[in-house]
Every structure is written in C-alpha cells, then in structure tokens.
Amino acid sequence: MLDQELCARHFTTSAIYIVDQIWHRAADRSMGSAELTEQTTTMLLLWSLLRWERKVGLVAHEHSGVELDSLARDLDALLREASSDAGKQLADLRQYTILATGKRAEIIDFRTPLEPVLAQAEHEALALGHNYVGTEHLLLAMINRACPRLLYLLAKHSVSYDRIRQSVLEALAG
C-alpha cells in the first residue's frame, strides 16, 4: 500500500526499496511502535541506504570521502541506544488489537514518524529541479531532519548537508 502511494508521489524504485527496508530493519531489532520515532526511523533509513542499496545516495557518500563501514558501525550503535531510550520513554503508549485468532498483536505505526522525512525528500527533489524522488533526495532529507545525536555522529564522520549536496550534484553530473 505504501509502495503504491510512494510511486504516485514519484519516488523511484530504489527509494521505495530503502523505505521498505525500515520494516525489516525494525523487525530485525525487535523494535515496537514505541521505538519508532522520527529519530529512529531516520536512522533506520540511513542504515538501509548504507547497507542495502548502491545508488546515487550511497555514491554521494563515497564521493565525499566518508568511510562507510565506520559510519555504519557507529550508526548501528547509535540506533541501538536511541531505540532503547525511546522504548523506555514510550512503553505505555503501545497500542494492541485482538486478532481473529483471539491473540493480541501490537499495532506498529510506521507512517507517522516516516512522513516528515518523505516530505523533506520531496522538497529536496524539487529544490534540485528533479521530477522524481531518489535515494539522493532521501539522503539529503535524512541529514536535514537529523536529530542532534545523529547530527553529531554525521559531523564526526565529516558528513554535512552542504558537502553531501555537492557530492550528489557531482554524482548526477558525472
């Protein structure tokens, strides 16, 4: 369902793939709805981009001189810490539903924390004069919407919005 919505919003297949990976990465970490904040969702998007898709967004990182494996390791540690913090703070807000089988299942809302990043990615595409939203626009949106902890980590790895934007432009031109 979200795939169709993103397709209608002119997200590329690769960008949709990165977004789809959030659910898998959250499940791999046994993250519930309490841990899925805008901050952790942005981190999961970046993690997916760094590990599962070699498109313009990742190439822009490489062109800017970022050591991707080191950034991914540090991001993984930050994600563990952030999801743990969020889980402790929001544990009472989890919602449950009773399935037809009579079992209780947690309702996980992926859309609400994801939407600000997706909207920012659309803005980034328009700002570059593009009529599509690709992984490069997702990357710029992630950096633009990064929480202070993620910004600190990115700065530690010499990742800045301006530097990555320039690398995106160079990757697209080359």
Q: What does it look like?
A:
This protein has helices spanning 2-8, 13-28, 38-52, 56-63, 68-90, 111-127, 135-144, 148-156, 161-173, and strands spanning 95-98, 104-107. It has 174 residues and is mainly α. Helices cover 68% and strands 5% of the residues. A hairpin with a 5-residue loop joins strand 1 (95-98) and strand 2. Strands 1-2 form a two-stranded antiparallel sheet. It has a single domain (2-88, 105-173), classed as Clp, N-terminal domain (Double Clp-N motif).
Summary?
The chain has 174 residues and is mostly helical.
Quaternary class: single chain
The main sheet orders its strands as 1-2
Low-confidence parts lasting 5 or more residues at pLDDT below 50?
Answer: 86-98
Output the CATH topology: Double Clp-N motif
Distance between the termini: 35 Å
CATH superfamily: Clp, N-terminal domain
As a percent range, the share of strand residues is under 5%
Structural class assignment: mainly alpha
CATH architecture: Orthogonal Bundle
Morphology call:
globular
Question: Given this structure, which CATH class is correct?
Answer: Mainly Alpha
- Determine the mean pLDDT: 80
Number of helices: 9
How do the SSEs run, as a string of H and E?
A: HHHHHEEHHHH
Number of domains: 1
User: How many individual β-strands?
Assistant: 2
